[in-house]
Amino acid sequence: MTVAAYRAIGLAVLSALLPIAHAADEPPALAHNPFSRPPSEVIRSERGPIERGDDTGVALELQATMVGKVSELANVAGRILKPGDEIQGYVLVAVHEEYAVFKRDSRTITVYVRPNLAEDNE
After folding, report:
1. Which of 50, 71, 93, 100 has the greatest count of CB atoms below 10 A from its CB?
2. Where are the domains of the chain?
3. CATH code linked to domain 40-121
């Protein structure tokens, strides 16, 4: 066989494999954007249910927490509390970065900061 024949065979093989190689270079399509934030319902379900503050169905809505070296504060439904303060019959026991601990009689509950729904719409 001549060099020209080898070249012709080589070109035929390459042209036959080129569409296959090109298709393999394309990444598979994703079902969803891995960088988007999950819906707020998913965030809430991972944290567990929001505890109710009393039997009337009014929730202890923890809006924010502030933890410093000297003091700890929690914003519950717009009211600023420090450990020892009472709201809806519950006493604030401890404040942490993402949650606060309340106690009523012998029952202790943990309430998490709710995600900001406005951020989910970005």
Report:
1. 100
2. 40-121
3. 2.30.30
